[in-house]
Structure formats: structure tokens, C-alpha cells
Design brief:
By secondary structure, the protein is α/β, with parallel strands linked by helices. It has helices at about 5-30, 45-60, 75-85, 100-105, 140-150, 165-180, 190-200, 210-215, 265-280, 280-290, 300-315, and strands at about 35-40, 65-70, 90-95, 120-135, 155-160, 185, 205-210, 220-225, 250-260, 295.
């Protein structure tokens, strides 16, 4: 005979099983409404372009619309924080860029923790920077520029997208490895710095290939190197900076994160579908045409990549003074 206490226990167990079953069914049915990609950059840029490419094809595969929402401000913090605060249901996702990992080097009291508050889904793509100078500069190779910098300490200027930006840290890594002193000229937007390099006001810059390869081929800029470990298939005539400074590698990256606590089943479904989009030959060619490499790796691989990137720039930042905002 079942006692009242046993009935209570059985009833609670049944409720727990029913609740668990409801959660599992909900995840199996994901998605059941539109998904948002929160993009921390403006419309028309490289990250926005690839986000819209991915959103279109992912929406076709999932049979639900994927909407790109550009949320600019506070050095990508507004976009990052909005996803951290979102419900962990897979409908609000962050199309993050390098600035997510370098944020703690620049800003005090961030309202999120990089390791705790972002659920890695997949690395979408990596893009090397182009290391460019004005064509009038008497430097045709990275070795030439390093020699100039050694002969004129602190006079060779470089543009960046601001203190702590990845191209700022990329030049500091170069300076450290080459044992030279360079002059930093920060801008609010990286494209402003490139314009000033073309005008001859600043010596050099590092920017994504999609931003500057047309100016290089038009003779308005001279490309000294790419920052990937090897030459890029989109411009194989341009040497890798690692050919001059062995071990040098800097990649601009875009990757997809969810909020904390995003269920594993949803993470894996999103990663699987996004990877399929990125493996499509036409999509991969479109990304490669802008100097990028489509990735689509596992959540664990992306998490390890992200941690490595954080650690790398923290080491670089220890050698320079960055006053946090």
C-alpha cells in the first residue's frame, strides 16, 4: 500500500520528469520564432556584411527569419551587454569581434565576465590585416620599415581604431618583436586612419583586406605584408609579416556567442547549421574574396581560441601603458 508520503514523492518526481520533458521538447522545436544577431559594428562594414550573409542562409535552413541588429556604442559594450542580459533561449546572439576580448584592457568595471557570461557557439571567420604605408615612403618591405624605425626612433607613426583596439595592439606586438619605438595615432574609427595614411599624414596602418585591397591595387597605398602566419590566397603576392618576424600572427576574427546558460542542445544545433552555411562553396568563396577564411569550428575549439586571444593581448598590454576608461 502506498503511503501519503510516498504519493507526495512520486508526485514530485512525475512533475520533475514532465518539466524536463517540456524543456527537451522545447529545445527540439528550436527555433519557433525569429532569431536576432546583435552586431557591434555599423551597417556596410565587413562584420555586418558577413552577418547578413550568414543570417540569410541560416534563416533558410532553420525556416525562420534571422534578423541583423546593429547596436553600436561604448566600444562594443552595448552590444555585448545586451546579449549577456538576454534570455538563454537562443533567440538573441552576439556576432562578436576582437574588441570583446580586449575590452578588459581598456575599460574599468565591465558589466560582464568574458569567461563566465558568454557561451561560445562557433568561430565564423578570421581575416588577416594588411600592413600598409603611403607609396612615397622609402620602404617596400617590412624589413625596410623596421630599419627606418630604428634609424628614427618614435618618428614612424601608425594609425589605429583607438587605444586598446586590435590594430593598436598589433603594432605594439610588432614593435616589441622588432625592438623598435613607434608613435601611436589613435582615431575614433579605423577607416579615418587609413584615409590619413593615403594623405601622407600618418606613416602606416593595419586594416582588414576588404577595407584597403582596392586602394593598394589602385596605387594609393603600398602593402608591405599580411599579418597571417602565411600568405593569403586572396593576395598571394603580398608576403606574410612572419617571413620577417617569425612567429608574428594577428587575425581579425568574428565569432558567434550566446548568453550565459544557453542549453547545450541549442548551441550544438546552431553550430551545426552555421558550419554547414560556411562550408557551402559559394559562401566560402564570397568570404575568401574579401581576404577572409570561413571557419565554423566546434564550441570547444572556439572557446579555446577565444581564451588564447585574451591571453595573447594581455601579455602585449603588460608592456605598454593603457589608461582604462
Amino acid at each position: 500500500m502506498t503511503t501519503p508520503a510516498q504519493k507526495t514523492i512520486y508526485g514530485l518526481a512525475a512533475c520533475a520528469l514532465a518539466a524536463a520533458g517540456g524543456i527537451a521538447i522545447g529545445q527540439d522545436q528550436f527555433p519557433s520564432k525569429p532569431i536576432q544577431f546583435i552586431v557591434p559594428t555599423g551597417p556596410g562594414g565587413g562584420t555586418d556584411t558577413v552577418s547578413r550573409l550568414l543570417a540569410r542562409h541560416l534563416g533558410e535552413r532553420l525556416k525562420w527569419q534571422v534578423v541583423v541588429v546593429n547596436r553600436l556604442g561604448a566600444g562594443t559594450r552595448l552590444a555585448n551587454e545586451s546579449v549577456v542580459k538576454a534570455a538563454p533561449d537562443g533567440y538573441t546572439l552576439l556576432m562578436a569581434i576582437n574588441a570583446l576580448g580586449t575590452g578588459p584592457l581598456v575599460f574599468k568595471n565591465l558589466p560582464y565576465d568574458l569567461q563566465r557570461d558568454f557561451t561560445p557557439i562557433t568561430l565564423v571567420l578570421v581575416v588577416p590585416y594588411l600592413f600598409v604605408v603611403h607609396p612615397s615612403l622609402p620602404a617596400k618591405t617590412p624589413k625596410d620599415l623596421i630599419a627606418l624605425a630604428k634609424a628614427r626612433p618614435g618618428e614612424i607613426s601608425y594609425a589605429s581604431a583607438g587605444v586598446g583596439a586590435s590594430n593598436h595592439l598589433s603594432f605594439e606586438l610588432l614593435a616589441n618583436m622588432a625592438n623598435v619605438k613607434l608613435h601611436h595615432v589613435p582615431y575614433k574609427f579605423g577607416t579615418q586612419g587609413v584615409v590619413d595614411v593615403m594623405a601622407g599624414h600618418v606613416t602606416t596602418a593595419m586594416t582588414t583586406m576588404a577595407t584597403t585591397i582596392a586602394q593598394v591595387r589602385a596605387g594609393k597605398l603600398r602593402a608591405l605584408a599580411v599579418t597571417s602566419a602565411k600568405r593569403d590566397a586572396a593576395a598571394p603576392e603580398i608576403p606574410a609579416l612572419a617571413e620577417t618576424l617569425p612567429g608574428y600572427e594577428v587575425l581579425f576574427w568574428t565569432g558567434l556567442f550566446g548568453p550565459p546558460g544557453l542549453p547545450r542542445e541549442i548551441v550544438l544545433k546552431l553550430q551545426r547549421e552555421i558550419s554547414a552555411v560556411l562550408r557551402d562553396p559559394q559562401n566560402a568563396r564570397q568570404i575568401a574574396a574579401d581576404g577572409g577564411q570561413a571557419v565554423g569550428n566546434s564550441p570547444e575549439e572556439f572557446g579555446a581560441f577565444f581564451k588564447g586571444d585574451i591571453d595573447k593581448w594581455a601579455r602585449v598590454a603588460r608592456n605598454i601603458h593603457i589608461e582604462k576608461e
